[in-house]
Amino acid sequence: MAALNIKKGSSSHSAYDLRDFHSQAERSHTLALIVDNEAGVLARVIGLFSGRGYNIDSLTVAETDHKGHRSRITIVTRGTEAVIEQIKAQLGRIVPVHEVHDLTVESAAVERELALFKVVGGGDKRVEALRLADIFRANVVDSTLESFVFEITGTSEKIDAFAELMRPLGLADVARTGVAALSRGA
């Protein structure tokens, strides 16, 4: 792989360098890991990311096989293709990791996130918050005379859009689960 090599003060570089530069754009990837459900596994996985300066945008963990004592870790991270390949290779070398899948490139995947939003306000803002919640198919899971707690599921983009619309209406608090994802099909 060629590195982009531009000398200070130089305004020209080869077409090869341009192709390489554009191919190195960072992209979000959803990684699914099957691991042993034992103490320290999550710390080792997270340590790999923090030790190498990789960021985690979203992280979910739950036991999925009680008899086999296996858990699924879903991680959303960003990086160039080379960085993502390096992350996958390093994750695969951690002993209690049994499978590493990049759902972004392996196949079509279904991704969902759950979020709770507390919106405080009255009058027209309260009515508008209810109207928008209906449009976004958010459920009211708690209500007082001064506030609502909405529950919403969907893509991270849908959750972000709902948050932006609720902010001027009195958004007071948000709790998000992080992305849960599965590949589609067989």
Automatic annotation (TrEMBL):
Classification via SUPFAM superfamilies: ACT-like
Annotated ranges, domain ACT: 30-105
Superkingdom in the source lineage: Bacteria
UniProt keyword Transferase present: yes
UniProt entry keywords in alphabetical sequence: Amino-acid biosynthesis, Branched-chain amino acid biosynthesis, Transferase
A Gene Ontology cellular-component term: cytosol
Cited InterPro entries: Acetalactate_synth_ssu, Acetolactate_synth/TF_NikR_C, Acetolactate_synth_ssu_C, ACT-like_dom_sf, ACT_dom, AHAS_ACT, AHAS_small-like_ACT
Pathway terms, separated by semicolons: Amino-acid biosynthesis; L-isoleucine biosynthesis; L-isoleucine from 2-oxobutanoate: step 1/4; Amino-acid biosynthesis; L-valine biosynthesis; L-valine from pyruvate: step 1/4
Reactions the enzyme catalyzes: 2 pyruvate + H(+) = (2S)-2-acetolactate + CO2
UniProt keyword Transferase present: yes
Gene Ontology terms: biological process: isoleucine biosynthetic process; L-valine biosynthetic process
GO function terms (MF aspect): acetolactate synthase activity; acetolactate synthase regulator activity
Enzyme Commission (EC) number: 2.2.1.6
Biological function: Catalyzes the conversion of 2 pyruvate molecules into acetolactate in the first common step of the biosynthetic pathway of the branched-amino acids such as leucine, isoleucine, and valine.
Subunit structure: Dimer of large and small chains.
Family: Belongs to the acetolactate synthase small subunit family.
Full protein name: Acetolactate synthase small subunit
Species of provenance: Phaeovulum vinaykumarii
